[in-house]
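Lab notebook, bench 4. The sequencing result for the construct came back, and we need a structural model before the next group meeting so we can plan mutations. Quick request posted to the team channel:

Model the 3D structure of this chain.
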Amino acid sequence: MKKNLPTIIFISLIVLVAGLAIYAISRPEDKASSTTKSTTQRPKVEADVAKLSSGNSLGPADAKVTLSEFGDYQCPACAQYHKLVKDEIIPKYSDKLKFVFLNYPLIDIHANAQAAAQAAEAAALQGKFWEMHNILYERQDDWSKQKNPHSKFEAYARELGIDVDLFKKDSDSQKVIELINQQAGLGDAFKVKGTPSFFVNGTAVVLKAGSSDLIEAITKALAQ
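Done. Here's the predicted structure in token form:
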């Protein structure tokens, strides 16, 4: 038995290593994340408050208050805050507030977040950003766990009257990818730790009580 012990240990180690290798290859989220990372190198961006107004926006360009959000389309909390912003915040301050959405896909934990951001920005090139933005959040459950969500995104584009062939081309374009990377890099510069992250006139809002925190921050900014 003692003579065979080294051989048994050696064989056991080989089986263990092989098992770990198979496990690593078969995990879809990790595989998707590593693939995404290769095309999403975030640049180092200066923490310039003016850049917090540079994304897709709603409301007056010269509004006294700018509410900027760094969001991830696959993030469940972002989907909840999307409803608050769309149904409560924007109607409440319609002519006094500029709302800006900035992409911050959490590619380490959300396998489809980058693809969703690319879909939204591709739709933006055909003037349909907010329509796609709303669908992605409001139908998050339909596409977020898909191994390949692109067919869903293309169906949404078709539903919105978007040229699907152009949409597919733009989704994978370097222009769109670089735009998202720049916005995510800006989030890194402002030390964004998660999504959603909100800024009012360049000042980070600490979220503890949902929309009331945002309303309080916006009300204070309007009073200044």
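The chain has two domains: 5-37, 49-223.
Will bring this to the meeting.
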